[in-house]
Amino acid sequence: ETKFGDKYVVMHPDDERYLDYQHGQTFECEWINGLILATVIKDDSVDPAFGTGVMTITPWHDHTDFEIAERHQLDKEPIIDFEGRLLPVAKEFSGMPIEEARSMIVEKLEAKGLLVGVDEKYTHSKSFNSRGGGAIEPQIREQWFIDVNKQSIEWKGSQSSLREILIDVVRYGDIKLVPNRFENIYFHWVENLRDWCISRQIWWGHRIPAYYRGDELKISMHPPEGEGWEQDPDTLDTWFSSALWTWSTLIDPELAQDESIPFEELLRRSPDFQKFHPTHVMETGYDILFFWIARMILMTTYMIREVPFQTVYLHGLVRTRDGKKMSKSDPANCIDPLESIRDYGTDALRLALIQGTGPGQDLRLYPEKLESCRRFSNKVWNAGRYILMNIPAGTSLAPPETVDNEQAQWLLHELDLLIQKTRQGLEAFRLSEVIDNLRSFFWGTFCDWYLEMDKRPDRGEEDNRVLAYALSIQLKLLHPYIPFVTEALWENLGQKTMLARASWPEPQGFTFPESHQKLELVCESVSHLRALREKASLGLNQKIDANIDSEQHSEVFESHSDLIRRLARINTLQIRKVEAIPSGEALSSYFRETLISIDAEALDFSQEILNLQKQLNQEIQFLEKSLSKLENSGFLNNAPEKIVHELREKVDSSEKMIEALKKQVYELEQLTS
Prior knowledge:
Helix content is 44%, strand content 13%. With 673 residues, the chain is an alpha/beta fold. The chain folds into 5 domains: 2-111, Isoleucyl-tRNA Synthetase, domain 2; 145-198 and 237-315, Rossmann fold (3-Layer(aba) Sandwich); 360-497, Isoleucyl-tRNA Synthetase, Domain 1 (Orthogonal Bundle), CATH 1.10.730.10; 515-598; 606-672, Orthogonal Bundle (Helix Hairpins). The protein is extended and about 110 Å long.
């Protein structure tokens, strides 16, 4: 359909096949609507290896053709109107829609012997409207542009262009990109930056503040005085408006009503601007690094002569479990945040969007991850409520002045290390790593270990203060990740000011290396005893006898024997100060010059073996039945793809379960032999 405007034949200047043709040379030839005068154009953009190495151009309707025409100052002629119909230059096809005329144009070319052949396998890029689905045809029309190469701005003592400033502020450290690998992408964009088209032909947006009357033009916030003025119908590019965000939101709204106040004075008299500009950290997705971040830098350095922010933290895209991008253009791939908040809670959604990703890395979001985060939020709430029920109301949250209990010393030692790691991680923008540490500490160190240690009859005021302090510190550290649960618990602790306004935790110098080493050894021994219990398939309610042999650590185990027995559910614990020698017995474990074992002689594993064998047989029957289905072509051809996929996953899971059950049966049989 654009062939009606063809009058330039373009070829590469070094193509040896066409050296006889000179740039600017003209020749007559028969074309779709009769004889035309064609002009030879030599341009480096032509690929000599593609096709004949010669192409015709239609500058009005193609970006590449337009650039060629601009370089060589060629005429540009419209072929298609803004309604998608052919213009009079198409003669008998004038007024016809493109889709209707296309096949008829091909027929005419064939009839005139001008169509040599059709490549049915040829593919090319074509733009379509994401909402309506219609094809997008490039058109030339008047627009408003920002000149990015004009040397018109005073910056660091010299005249610079907007593009030069965009490069300078990142290259010389005024603005830091996190992660810094995006600097190469940023420089590639900015170094190839063209004048910015800021006008749009859409209904909604900030209207261009330009007024016309005949040949007169005035730029004004309000219509000029006099009759006959008409405002430009275009709107500003949405990124133009968004680019003003960093400083326009901080201007005093009452002062802004007074248009007589100069801009510089308006900034000087706006308290929020003076306090918060430039922003310390700007967080956004890497996909709009150029569209938004670069434009904010451009507009702010132009208007205010300072950078809009000091650091840009770039997060990745949200994707499905299998890596597909979540986008409003494909709702089937999206997880509705409002539904997620309803089903899992706001804190869980917030946490799921942070955990498991690094700066600039894409994130996978799926229901199981949301559920895991919901369980953690619930764990924080339940643990907090438990502590509140077990300490007196009004217990001080201040750091304990003296701590004599070794278990408390161990906790406070760990807590100081956690505070340090959290600050270091946040300052380095390792947000996911920080919450991994916080989550592991709260659920493991604090709940699984310390709260269980603390469940003893001789608890005193010191223990209450340690609990209150430890909870308050963790609420502060967790608050950026799960603000609602932590804020609610903070209020329940009797605090009148919001947790969001509380001071950030600082290490208190709680360093108890000796107690810390002892309790780490105790915890490790309990973990080994629990692992042996699990290996023997012994329930927590089944009391067992155990032995600990250690010449080096026997005193530590003796002084904490009651704690070990309670945490590991041991009936009788025998601690012997003898050299520990690794044993080949199934129910023993060797670590740190220590041998731990449980007494298996009095244990009867026969019933457990029968139960496992029964479960194993059921699993084998399911696997055989499932494999038979998957070998049936009728099932594979007729069953929905989703059902087949789910069955294959069940087969994989069943095979793993069978191997695990066989291993358990073998180990128990070894214990009884």
